[in-house]
From TrEMBL:
The keyword DNA-binding applies. It holds the Pfam family GntR. It comes from Paenibacillus beijingensis. Gene3D superfamilies: Winged helix-like DNA-binding domain superfamily/Winged helix DNA-binding domain. Residues 9-77 form the HTH gntR-type domain. GO terms for molecular function: DNA binding; DNA-binding transcription factor activity. The lineage of its organism: Bacteria, Bacillati, Bacillota, Bacilli, Bacillales. InterPro entries: Tscrpt_reg_HTH_GntR, WH-like_DNA-bd_sf, WH_DNA-bd_sf. This is GntR family transcriptional regulator. It comes from the Bacteria. Keywords: DNA-binding, Transcription, Transcription regulation. The keyword Protein biosynthesis does not apply.
Length: 120
């Protein structure tokens, strides 16, 4: 699960996104145990509190859950939740931006659809 840190974004957010990526890509299956915060801290050479902050983001979203004395696990339905979350982010980040730019350039909806189909 190694990766290069993006210095412009909080590390705990990047830790949470890496775990999300692992779930979406199938490396972390539902009900699978995830590495501990100390393991994340060691792997990424960060403070365990920072790793815990990233993991707790996912606990708060219902993506991970804690089993007292055992560790952290991927919740049932986590992948579907993450897919919906990422699709909404894709829409907001790319589609809305594209439509706004198309409007500025006077591109009609039909022309925009033609452009999208041309790539596929």
């Amino acid at each position: 699960m190694g990766f290069d840190m993006d210095e412009s974004r909080p590390i705990f957010v990047q830790i949470a996104e890496r775990i999300e990526d692992g779930i979406i890509e199938g490396a972390l299956q539902e009900e699978a145990q995830v590495p501990s915060t100390n393991q994340f801290a060691s792997l990424y050479q960060i403070n365990p509190a920072t790793a815990a902050k990233g993991v707790n983001l996912l606990v708060d979203q219902g993506i991970l859950y804690k089993k007292r004395g055992v560790g952290m696990f991927v919740a049932e339905g986590a992948r579907a939740k993450l897919m919906e979350k990422r699709k909404e982010q894709f829409y907001e980040q790319y589609v809305v931006t594209m439509i706004r730019e198309a409007e500025k350039l006077g591109i009609t909806a039909e022309q925009l659809m033609d452009m999208i189909r041309r790539k596929g």
